Amino acid sequence: MSGEDDLFTLGGDAPAPRTLSDRNRDHRAPLAVRMRPRSLEEIVGQHAALEPGSPLRRLVAADDARTAPASVILWGPPGTGKTTLAYVVAQSGDREFVEVSAVLAGVKDIREVVDAARSRLRTTGRETVLFVDEVHRFSKSQQDALLPSVENRWVTLIAATTENPYFSVISPLLSRSIMVTLESLDRADLDALVDRALTSPQGLDGAVTLTPEAREALLRLGGGDARKILTSLEAAAAAALMTGGGEGEREITAEVLAQAVNRAALRYDRAGDQHYDVTSAFIKSMRGSDVDAALHYLARMIEAGEDPRFIARRVVIAASEEVGMADPTALQVAVAAMQAVQMLGMPEGRIPLAQAVVHIATAPKSNASYTALDAAIADVRAGRAGDVPADLKDAHYAGASALGHGQGYRYAHDAPHGVVAQQYPPDELVGTDYYHPTGHGAEERTRQRVQALRRIVRDQQG
To answer: What is the pLDDT at residue 21?
Structure first.
């Protein structure tokens, strides 16, 4: 949670709070703060979350406890308005608004807020809205501390998170709250946001203009994050005002924007949904033989700072799981890439990673080897694991021959082609085929050889 977003923050020292209107008028505040909506009507996007009768509408409008909604968990990507919605609620009705830092606050701080809210409700009847930003950073004990106050409605909780609440919020708190999913802003919403920031007295007040090319680049760099877009616009405006020679020349061009902001916002959380979603798309793109998509997701993981060893491990798994015997060299390339990453580090390690990803994505595909093992494991777990044939049992100890171990064993290397007819599996599994080679790539040759080997080996098995 950024410091400029705090009304006041528990768990750390902070200056005396100011009103939201004071903050919006303060031109020293960041543009994203100055442009923060003060009512639901000013909010851009989130039409589904703000439709009539929705929990957020009721939270803002309801003065009657019978119509007030339960506590709310706001889940959405960065820059979609979670903090803004909490502030709009703060300005509606005669309710106390308290913001807690999930980074700094402890269980003691939460209990102090709850005790104060209970006292306020009992003595004055005034309700308290408790806003917890980045609630996923709370430990289980901290989230547990919220349960009584939410259960008894001593506070109305608004919790915001960028991570999937089903993974990051404890079940009892989820069951006592309404989850509201916020979506990324679409192009029309972002255009309206930029126009408002350019012209509004609280924003740039017409001090600069934005070329169409710069607008396209700005929206692309923002990655759908409204806060990032406004921050980038502010940086570009400062650069344009500094370099512009006259009033008519103070425009933000694509070049000015590129100079002020040189990297796009990337939505990726190494411990949350984006980690799993991008990884999943990466693997499925290699499996689906879309080399360009696979490289795209590889780039996203690298740019987001994902552990390159994690990426390399996924590539090694894909080499066997997706390619297998259709191209046995894929595993060699993947393992070599993993070792190269460990030796080289980053950024050079991205080069062997790219080579391995291209190899796997473009290789013929077969999962026959690992599905064969899964089928064998299923039989073992089901109890199909008979006695080892006597001629295959260990005969390298005194007394083994008296037990019949090793008698009748045929040494394969004595045969002209190195293959002999002999029963290898337990009696219960004679004739069972686990491995079903495909006709893809090199596995076609393997398929033909497996068929020939089975005919020879099973000749005396009936």
So the answer is: 42
C-alpha span between 110 and 239 (Å, rounded)? 43
Tell whether domain 3-181 is in CATH 3.20.20.70: no
State both tokens at 430. Answer: 């004679």
Average pLDDT rounded to a whole number, residues 169-176: 90
Please state, in angstroms and rounded to a whole number, the distance separating the CA atoms of residues 416 and 412: 9
CATH 1.20.272.10 spans which residues of the chain?
A: 273-362
Could you give the 3-state DSSP secondary structure of residue 367? coil
Containing H/E element for 248?
A: none
Helix (H), strand (E) at residue 425: none
**Sequence ranges of the chain with CATH classification 1.10.3710.10:** 384-457
Q: What is the pLDDT of residue 319?
A: 96
C-alpha span between 109 and 412 (Å, rounded): 75
Distance CA 88, CA 6 (A): 14
Does residue 203 carry a pLDDT above 50? yes
Contacts of 432 (CB under 8 A, 6+ apart): 379, 425
Which pLDDT score, from 0 to 100, does residue 69 have?
59
Structure tokens at 36: 């923060």
Cα 399 to Cα 378: distance, rounded to the nearest angstrom? 35
- Class of CATH domain 187-260: mainly alpha
- The answer, as to whether pTM is greater than 0.70, is no
Nearest partner of 34 among 198, 260, 154, 266, judged by Cα: 198
pLDDT band at 336 (very low <50, low <70, confident <90, very high): very high
Which residues in the chain are classed under CATH 3.40.50.300?
3-181
Domain 273-362: top CATH class: mainly alpha
DSSP string, 280-323: HHHHHHHHTT-HHHHHHHHHHHHHTT--HHHHHHHHHHHIIIII
pLDDT tens across 82-113, in order? 888 888 877 776 778 888 877 777 888 888 88
CATH-assigned architecture of domain 384-457: Orthogonal Bundle (1.10)
**Comma-separated ranges of CATH 1.10.8.60 domains in the chain:** 187-260
Look at 365 and 39; give whichever has higher pLDDT: 365
At 231-243, the pLDDT tens digits run: 889 988 988 888 7
> In terms of DSSP H, where are the helices of 125-176?
140-151, 165-168, 171-175
Cis status, amide bond into 347, omega within 30 of 0: yes
Rounded to 5°, the CA angle 63-69-75 comes to: 130
53 neighbors 222 (Cβ within 8 angstroms): no
Q: Give me the chain's average pLDDT, please.
A: 81
7-11, 263-267, 314-318, 352-356: lowest mean pLDDT where?
7-11
Beta bridge partners of 299: none
